[in-house]
Design brief:
By secondary structure, the chain is of the alpha+beta class. The protein contains four helices and two strands; from the N terminus they run ααβαβα. Helix content is 44%, strand content 12%. It has a two-stranded parallel sheet. Helix 3 (47-56) links the parallel strand 1 (35-39) and strand 2 (62-66). Helix 2 packs parallel to helix 3 (47-56). 15% of the residues are buried. The mean pLDDT is 86.
């Protein structure tokens, strides 16, 4: 995972997950994060679904959307969910 390697190199404590469901599970276990890098194209639950679910759970962490797509519609959809 490119982002994890870059964060490690910068000395930033981080936790990488394989899919959106893992992110829900980790928040349900009472762990919290200052910032979440959210990949739009995660398996099981994509980044937009995941962000929407986290917001509905009351998670207020900063969520930064990450995507290989530059389609305006997808960017707007990501931003609208929070």
């Amino acid at each position: 995972m490119l982002h994890q390697r870059l964060l490690n190199k910068a000395g930033v404590k981080n936790h990488a997950l394989e899919n959106g469901k893992e992110a829900i599970d980790i928040h349900c276990s009472a762990q919290s994060f200052d910032m979440i890098l959210m990949d739009k194209d995660m398996p099981i639950m994509n980044g937009i679904e995941e962000t929407n679910k986290l917001r509905s759970m009351g998670i207020g962490s900063m969520i930064v959307g990450v995507s290989s797509s530059s389609k305006e519609e997808e960017i707007r959809e990501f931003m609208e969910v929070g």
